[in-house]
Design a protein that fits this description.
Layout: E1 3-6, E2 17-20, E3 24-25, H1 28-38, H2 43-46, H3 48-51, H4 63-77, E4 78-81, E5 85-96, E6 105-118, E7 121-132, E8 140-149
Parallel strand pairs: 1-4
Antiparallel strand pairs: 2-6, 3-6, 5-8, 6-7, 7-8
């Protein structure tokens, strides 16, 4: 469910827990497309037969593929109305805690940790977690930085 807030309320949103997105399946097709886009065709990602005998017992998603999905999940969890521009400003911290095997389902959760005024708008520091369905540890934990300009 998307939390929608007004720009006028942005400064008050620190500490807001945005909950979780729906689950999505990480398919081999998605992994292969990411490999093509980044020229990272390491066998643990794109060779299912060889990956069966590898360290994870199956092909896994690229860590950066999992990380890139934080943008999708963030967009599903939050929207700020009354802005002219929304910018993914970067990351402060990222950890790839657990591999995501092809076929696994993942979802994203987020908490707005800090809201800081910047020239022309606000910067949100957002603690984001990607969890694996049935997993004991998250796939990714990251602090994303997003800017909203009026």
């Amino acid at each position: 469910m998307t939390t929608i807030a007004a720009y006028a309320d942005a400064a008050t949103l620190a500490g807001t827990d945005l909950g979780w997105t729906e689950w999505i399946e990480v398919t081999q097709e998605r992994v292969n497309l990411f490999a093509d886009a980044t020229d990272d065709h390491q066998w643990i990602h794109v060779d299912p037969e060889r990956a069966k005998d590898g360290p994870f017992g199956a092909p896994i998603a690229h860590g950066f593929l999992s990380l890139s999905l934080t943008v999708k999940f963030w967009s599903e969890l939050f929207d700020l109305e009354g802005v002219t521009t929304k910018v993914n400003y970067g990351l402060e911290k990222v950890r790839f805690v657990s591999p995501v095997k092809v076929g696994a389902r993942i979802r994203g959760g987020a908490v707005i940790a800090e809201v800081t005024e910047v020239p022309g708008g606000y910067q949100f520091a957002v603690d984001q977690t990607i969890e694996i369905d049935g997993g004991t540890k998250p796939a990714v934990v990251a602090r994303g930085l997003y800017r909203f300009y009026a």
